[in-house]
Queue: 2 jobs
Job 1
Amino acid sequence: MSEPLVLGIETSCDETGVGIVRGTTLLADAVASSVEEHVRFGGVVPEVASRAHLEAMVPTIERACETAGVGLADVDAIAVTSGPGLAGALLVGVAAAKALALGLGKPLYGVNHLASHVAVDQLEHGRLPEPCLAMLVSGGHSSLLRVEDVTGHGRGVEPMGATIDDAAGEAFDKVARLLGLGFPGGPVIDREARSGSSVAIAFPRGLTARHDLERHRFDFSFSGLKTAVARWVEARERSGEPVPIADVAASFQEAVCDVLVRKALDAASSEGIEDLVIGGGVAANSRLRALAEERAGKLGIRVRVPRPGLCTDNGAMVAALGAEMVARGRTPSSLDLPADSSQPVTSVLV
Ligand code: KG4
Ligand code: ZN
């Protein structure tokens, strides 16, 4: 029997994603982003995102089917992000998925956005090693997860740590804004940092002092770092000296990546886990990838990072997790599946 053909829908933030996979093979990954519409606000506006999802949904489904060379009638199951995310945005995806499941008479799987960020790696690097340690870093979340079973069975997905204030991507976005670099900040800072020095300015490493490690060994904090960058830039401007944008970007980026990698590897080592999977928009960061490889290698830990297009929000990741649900015989969701803006990571399938 051939592997299941699964269509996945993602609308938790500003990307309308529709992906189609067969088992662990990616057939289509259509994404329509409303990011341009949010630029002038310096961040995602939920109402604008919801409306954009509504307009993009049908054309994006059609584009995905065309790319995959399949018709909707060929699809064996529909998967959708049921949470966490922006409530109104999630609703659009969940409603579309229910309509498809009902209309086609196919099972529906409402899945967790964070677990999807982990499952997507299968599309690129083959079967996910379980258990693995997943670090998810994006504009909305920064978490360390112990993944025993990505579909949620048994110990399933257990949170080990998370940010206590800003998400890693949010820190990139805020620092880019204060440097006048635009939105989203991650890619521009990544680019600027290439011509700067990562040791030019000693920015703080949040929650790494001994007394913090007692309570927050695997947690992150980026708001102090953001404030430190703001103070440094202000002092520079007050003294009438030019702000060395590239050096600030490189030193800030180093502070974020240093803490992320340090804590992820500490978490993996503490659990005796030998595989680290990194996902989420910030996983596209070139320094994060390099630093993780370098330090993990010394500990005998393998690092898996999907290509940037699969790290940012997309429908393929939802389809990938949906296909895993089908393959492992999980019970489909009911058609009254709710969209849950604060769905906990321990709830992988609703
Ligand atoms: O996963 P994602 O597309 O959406 C959310 O779920 O948030 O992540 C978007 C975030 C933004 O904060 C963006 O600045 C950040 O990922 N990002 C990066 C890079 N590319 C995107 N951060 C650092 N370096 C990058 N190259
Ligand atoms: Zn995400």
Note: Residues 15 and 185 are 16 Å apart (CA to CA).
Job 2
Amino acid sequence: MTLVLHTRAELRTAMVDAARPVGLVPTMGWLHEGHRALMKRARAENATTVATIFVNPRQFGNASDYTRYPRDTGNDIAICEAEGIDIVWIPEVEEVYPTGFDTTVSVGAVAEPLEGAARPGHFDGVATVVATLFALVGAEHAYFGQKDAQQVMVITRMAADLALPTQVIPCPTVREADGLALSSRNVHLTPGERVAAPVLHRALAAARDAYDEGEREGEVLRGLMEEILATEVLAQVEYASCADALTLRELQRIEGPALLSVAVIFGTTRLIDNALVGLEE
Ligand code: AMP
């Protein structure tokens, strides 16, 4: 049975007696197969699993994006139950950020480019809420999707720098059959945009193929991704990046692991995706 909790105090009390190790899956709800994969992994590796459902206002740059983020708590709880999650924490904003809350966790260079540049303040919001969740839950393990690759890097940096006792575990991106990465935001796509959306994955796959065939020039790979993204008239490209997988600095030439990543706007919906190359080098 899944225990549904709402306050900090309830969560803290529940964690005191929780069997160890504890696995945490932080989410913003509107749960899909991507979240379910994280929950399955957490369940397989821990004695107690905790999921959190919180649409974090601090990580949204614009108010309308926050307001229209999809929410369905009833269905989310049913999914947590189906996945055998032990505790689901669904706090109100005031519970996460009580009156007087005045701390921001701000990660450095790795949070600056890509999503950090496109969404100022986003990673401060992410790091602040994740640090708070880590402190409240005290999990041994926390599971994050590689779909948000830079987020994984930011949180890993934060956990290492602050000596947080929670190990950050990245999990593979779950995709639709046509390659589109699952995302709660996909629900906002119009039917036409939904048909166009797998172009992100096609662009990344083409760049990865080119890499596999020996292409190492960053500019060529960025150009290739842009070219493919440009074939969809509905796609407004925000960035196509080929960056060092450790520092996220744009690469002239790939000589080690690299992160290929794209951000594209379809109408009012912003989608991101990525692929790692060069891991074996
Ligand atoms: P969100 O609810 O979008 O904040 O996502 C919660 C967690 O699920 C984050 O760690 C995401 O990276 C992860 N996630 C979201 N979509 C996917 C996906 N398609 N595959 C794997 N993990 C995902």
Note: Residues 27-28, 34-35, 37-38, 144-145, 147-148, 171, 173-174, 181-184 surround adenosine monophosphate (CB under 6 Å).
